Amino acid sequence: MAGKKKEIQLQTIISNQDQWDELLLTKGIVVIDVFQAWCGPCKAVQNLFRKLRIDFSEDNVLHFAAAEADNIETLKPFRKSCEPVFLFSVHGKILAMVKGVNAPLITKIITDLVQEEREIAAGEKERAEVEELVFPEEGSEGSADEAVEEEVLTYSVGIIKPDDVLAGRVEEIKKKIKDAGFDIEADEERMLTEEQIRVFYARNKEEPDFDAFVQFMMTGPCHVLIITKKEATGAIPQWKDLHKASDSGETEEPMKLPGLTKPESLVNLCDVQDSVEDASRQLAFFFPNFHTSEVEHQVERTLAIIRPSLLKERRQSIMQRIKDDGFQIAMQKEVILSEEQVRTFYKEHVGQDYFPVLLEQMTSGPTLVLALTRENAVSHWRGLLGPKTLEEAKENPESLRAQYAIENVPINQLHGSSTPSEAQKELEFFFPKEQTFALIKPEAVKTHKDEIMKKVKEAGFSISKIKEQDLTREMAAQFYKDHKGKPFFDELVDCMTQGPSVIMVLSKENAVEEWRHLMGPTDPEEAKKTCPESIRAQFAHDILSNAVHGSSNIEDAVRSIKFAFGELDAD
Ligand code: ADP
Ligand code: MG
Questions:
Q1: Pick from 396, 430, 464: which residue ends a domain?
Q2: How far is the CA of 522 from the centre of ligand 2 (A)?
Q3: Are residues 49 and 173 in the same domain?
Q4: Pocket-testing residue among 439, 543, 559, ligand 1, by greatest number of atoms within 8 A of Cβ
Q5: Of the residues 223, 243, 415, 549, which is catalytic?
Q6: Distance of alpha carbon 145 from alpha carbon 252, whole angstroms
């Protein structure tokens, strides 16, 4: 590329139309970061670009540029864009565009383009006549998005009522929903609380038989669904209100049975709300962990691993660095991995020459596994890590793998998921969705029930089962059977049987540990000192009436759930 442009380390900077036109004379592939003068080229992709440059250095066809939209007429449509835009040109034609730091997509496009160039160079393929990409019209907000986004997903919460669940009609109803062109993203069987029912059906609260309806909804488990539809517009498809049909005043049948009113409509299959605001509010209410990039700003999660040597030597420093880079730690687990676990987690690497060292390292002491969240967590964390091998990482001294290399250890000390779907799999590996048994003790049911329930929801647990019940002495003894014979045992049983408890099955990744963390230390005095945000710090009366109970391990959770609810919940 021509000499008058400033050649920085990685990208050729293009700051006017002449330079742009000249850039398009470049043979091969040019990856162009279109940037705004006020924020400069995108830093988040630079490690990725460096890595790709190394990966494809032998092909000698890949170039990188950064072009300032403000001064280049051709790039006018991108001047108002507040997220990074990447263009890909081959032999002077812009063929693809990516909005946002979508590392997997950028990597795939570049890989495919290089592969194609290889085939052309090897004479295996002719250079095809291709249409150049047409930039979106400037002006209307989001016009650039429409060029890459074909459809909009809309979400809604649907409820299949207890009578249908009881009659075994769930699968049939779900099939009809799908046949009508919808997708079901989530399906959980739950006992709804009175509050959940009143919130979901808030618009029907003036109806004469509303209280009877609420009672009816609590007679058994419902299925709560997240229903989605792909559409060109953002409208939720004609949900109608079923309850208008139930105004007939018949007391024996608080709800008309689905199917009797408007057979052609989805509404006859399950209950849904009919506005976007309702839908997103309810989504948050019933599925606090369900993130939809369309509904709210995307906060992504990735899996990070701090290997044993680094954890031992520089734990503080790396943890601080993670926070300084804007990540939140959503979950963490310190584990000594077994050989079996390492082999499963790294199954793609098992045959490689470095695997024995990796295995030896990974089983040599405690590993810290983290679920990190922030916008674009996956590519951001990957970007910070830098190249895989220490040799390559050291060429890039800014990279975390270079900065946190450990002397005499030949492998990098940090892991990060490579794509969002890998992240999901890896997170499930270390933080599988679990159920735990939780109980609000009688004294707290009387005094702080609502506040505790609020904390449960805010922490992202879903309540799979819930009931309020007076424990018998036998039940209390069963839940605390490990403590039989201890000096406080009888008093503990007294305190557990002095009134109704709220007993629940809570579901979440890592639920057992997370619930114990939210409860806080057994002794409320200690809780106030070390864990002031915890339930026991805030709502415990004393060490016996310390607000809540939770299983201390999976086996205990399974046993207690079985004992309290008669079976293990299926999801
Ligand atoms: P946790 O409830 O945190 O799992 P434990 O399983 O050790 O705690 O104990 C069960 C319950 O017994 C505690 O919640 C507490 O109410 C009571 N308890 C535990 N230790 C003592 C103690 N030293 N004195 C009085 N009560 C205790
Ligand atoms: Mg315990």
A1: 430
A2: 8
A3: no
A4: 543
A5: 549
A6: 52
Atom of ligand 1 nearest to the CA of 545: 16
Q: Is residue 294 part of a domain?
A: no
Residue 100 lies in a domain: yes
Select from 488, 518, 541, 556 the residue to mutate for testing ligand 1; criterion: most ligand atoms less than 8 Å from CB.
488
Residues flanking ion ligand 2, Cβ below 5 Å: 552
Q: Are residues 257 and 378 in the same domain?
A: no
Cβ neighbour number for residue 204 with a 10 Å cutoff:
19
CB under 8 Å, gap of 24 or more: what pairs does 559-565 form? 560/437, 560/478, 560/479, 561/435, 561/437, 561/465, 561/505, 563/475, 563/478, 563/479, 564/437, 564/475, 564/503, 565/465, 565/467, 565/505
Out of 93, 120, 147, a domain closes at: 147
Ligand in closest contact with the CA of 486: 1
Closest residue CA from atom 8 of ligand 1: 522
Q: Are residues 439 and 425 in the same domain?
A: no
Question: How many whole angstroms from 486 Cα to the centroid of ligand 1?
Answer: 10
- The domain total for the chain is 4
Range of the domain at 216: 155-286
Supply 439's token pair: 């109980």
- Whether the predicted model's global pTM rises above the 0.70 cut: no
Q: How far is the CA of 508 from the centre of ligand 2 (A)?
A: 19
Question: Rounded to whole angstroms, how far apart are CA atoms 85 and 74?
Answer: 14
470 with 503, same domain: the answer is yes
Q: For residue 177, is it within any domain? A: yes
Is 44 contained in some domain?
A: yes
Residues 65 and 113 occupy one common structural domain: yes
- Give the SS3 label for residue 424: helix
* 347 shares a domain with 455: no
Query: What is the distance in A from the centroid of ligand 1 to the CA of 490?
Result: 12
Which residue out of 492, 515, 545 has the highest number of ligand 1 atoms within 8 Å of its CB and is therefore the one to mutate?
492
Residue 22 belongs to domain with CATH number: 3.40.30.10
Residues at CB less than 6 angstroms from ligand 1: 480, 483, 488, 492, 522, 543-544, 546, 549, 552
Q: Is 415 a catalytic residue?
A: no
Instruction: Report the amino acid identity of residue 365.
Output: G
Q: With residue 565 as reference, give the H or E element that holds it.
A: helix 554-565
Closest CA to 237 of 259, 261, 257, 267: 267
Mean pLDDT per 10-residue run, the chain (571 residues)?
A: 52 92 91 87 86 88 93 87 84 87 84 90 84 66 37 72 91 87 82 86 86 91 82 35 32 28 49 65 70 50 96 96 91 92 94 94 96 91 93 92 94 94 91 92 95 89 87 94 95 96 91 94 96 96 97 94 72 41
- CATH number of the domain to which 224 belongs: 3.30.70.141
Q: Is the dihedral of CA 559, 561, 566, 571 positive or negative?
A: negative
Identify the pLDDT of residue 138.
53
Residue 550 Cα to ligand 2 middle (Å): 7
